[in-house]
Amino acid sequence: MKLDFTGEIIYWRGPAPFLFVAVPPDLSEAIKSIASSVTYGWGCIPVRARIGETEWKTSLFPKNGLYLVPIKALVQRAEGLDVGDQVAIRLEIG
Q1: Looking at the 3D structure of the chain, how many domains does it have?
Q2: d(Cα 50, Cα 63) in Å, to the nearest integer?
Q3: Contact between residue 21 and residue 8 where contact means Cβ atoms under 8 Å apart
Q4: pLDDT band at 29 (very low <50, low <70, confident <90, very high)
Q5: Using alpha carbons only, what angle is made at residue 41 by residues 8 and 65, rounded to the nearest 5 degrees?
Q6: Fewest CB within 10 A of the end CB: N or C in the chain?
């Protein structure tokens, strides 16, 4: 499954790296429909993510009915990102 969307980088005091982008509700529902076949536990979904020219492996975290994409410090530096920035993200699941 490939998903493309735009979202705002938010700060959340949770597991490092602390910066995340929420997957929109409709796409979060699509992810939930396949979650049981791709999760490795605790509802986390492994993905390959891309912002700009930077691609990385990470896991989506469920929170308040949506999924959060962690934006690693490496990605933040490479793409010059900070809280409040709007970013286009591509996710590949499975």
Answers
A1: 1
A2: 21
A3: yes
A4: very high
A5: 40
A6: C
pLDDT at 8: 98
Q: What is the pLDDT of residue 49?
A: 98
The predicted-structure confidence for 38-93, as pLDDT tens digits, reads as follows: 887 777 899 999 999 999 999 998 999 999 999 999 999 999 999 999 999 999 99
- In three-state secondary structure terms, 30 is helix
Query: DSSP code of 24?
Result: P
- pTM equals 0.89
Residue 49's domain comprises 2-93
The pair phi, psi for residue 7, each rounded to 5°, is -155, 170
Q: Tokens for 7?
A: 């979202």
Longest dimension (CA), the chain: 35
CATH number at residue 46: 2.40.30.100
Report how far residue 93's alpha carbon sits from residue 27's, in angstroms, rounded to the nearest whole number: 12
